Amino acid sequence: MEKTILIALAVIGAILFFGLVAPGPQAPPPETVAPTQPGQLIDSGQFVVDRAGQQIINEQYTLFFSPAEGYMLLSQESMSVNGQDISLAQQYEFDRDFMPVLYHLAADTPSGSQIISAQMGIKGLHMETRVGTAQQQADVPGKNIVILDNNLISHYVVLLLAIQAGAVPSDFTAAIPQALLSLPAKVDDPVDTSFVSGDKTYNGQIYNLHLGDLLIVMLAYQGKLVGVINDAQGVRAYNAQIFPNGITLSAATFAPEERPEGIAEKEVTFESGDVTLSGTLTLPANAAGPVPGVLFIAGSGPIDRDENVTGMKTDVFRQLAATLAKAGIGSLRYDKRGVGKSDGVFANVSMEDLIADARAALSTLRGSSGIDPTRVFLLGHSEGGILAPIIAADNNDLGGIVLLAAPAHSLDWIIRKQIEQTNRDMGKSDDEVQTALAQEDQYLNFIRNSKGTWDDYTFDQLKEAMPWLTQEKYSQIKMLSLSWLRQHFNHDPIETIKKVTCPVLIVQGEKDYQVPSSEADLLAAALQEAGNTDVTVDLIPDLNHLMRHHPEQPNLTYRHLDEPVDQRVLDAIAGWITSHIAK
What we know:
Strand content: 25-35%
Helix content: 10-25%
Structural class: alpha+beta
Number of domains: 3
Shape: globular
Distance between the termini: 39 Å
Largest sheet: 16 strands, mixed
């Protein structure tokens, strides 16, 4: 899931690895970074970063070693984003055990410059960013810390060397100074693979790196890092000195899941307007007759039928489908338009498109062999919890709807709440929080009053509405469809839920950082106020947005995705639907 909202609020709020440095005015230029007695040269190279066939980054690095002081990594980098040139220069010192000592990055952009730094102390790593006179800082406590800044492939060179030397455990903390953020990180054992460059095939090894719940694949050839693949962002880096023709690797995909016993599945396709969508119909094996059915409606972002996004596997819907089938209940889940096997272009999708697709899927489920069309339910997760009530309001014959982590407020309120909470959690002052909110309000107000698409506005027109906007930030906000944002901002889930007359189950996690747990009570109160007497709220302790057991404090980084969906969620949904089938 690039920085997004609602299932994964990962499409607006997660970290953009290989992202852009936020520009700012009047800081020392990159030329101020210089080596100080670096020692013996032990490695050097050139990495090229490619996105959608376009070269966006070129980094030259050198790595030195001194027996007395440890390692020093130096690099110069050029980036090209929307025709704008950005220069980066770094100096990174770490000890003989590959632990960070001192880090300094200078970024020179068309809008100004920025300094990012980090220094290891007794209690952990202290990080700072400086733009002009504005300064922000954060601390990463503990040991086993590895710096992985967003734009520098050379950091992965260091990480691989540390792994090979046994200096970094498989589980460690990744510090991202540019974002003043830290993430739990884990590296799997290496797996042999093959890859292609030019017209030749080579044998190498892949190391799957999990940053939070983002998957990044590191490719090694003869012990040396030659590739870094981030499919979630559509980004691939390769060592241009060794493989100037680039690298093609198909290993950065999920292995097919084994089908659980007792269920039958088949591929289905259906039409939504001029788009053909693909999905999976799941049924209990050897059912005596037609069974009840559930339509799954996914959360936001380019989500497939299982609620996975490239590089991040949540698997929520696949696990739910299996659980329901074992309880004698069928289901349909489908790839969003422009995702997986479905036609269309996801970047152009509007909220209205998603509603039309869900309605087409509902008709398909009702007409499917093996499904009883008189006993059909909807299940919406996150953004799907906004869409499901819209459809239920026009379908009075539904058996019921299940809402997982569904917002009661519109998307702009959710975004603003996240901005405020994230800044406060970072220790920002009240003045800094209010400044961040004021800028966010300019963005939100523009969206609410906008028309058409992003391409209908010139950059100058956008900058007039959002004075803080830069070319770099513009390239980020354009990743979300303007119509999708606008329609969500102008939609009130509370007013819609009042029109729902069928039974409703609301499942919400107390540790959900993306959608506050209080949203569940607001939805239930609105339903009851409108006269709906069959409303159940299941507020589950230590549960996060992606339906996983989460004993830690709530946070914006997804964790525990290597564990199954919480059994309490599976039991609650299967039990509630089973109890309502007989009604």
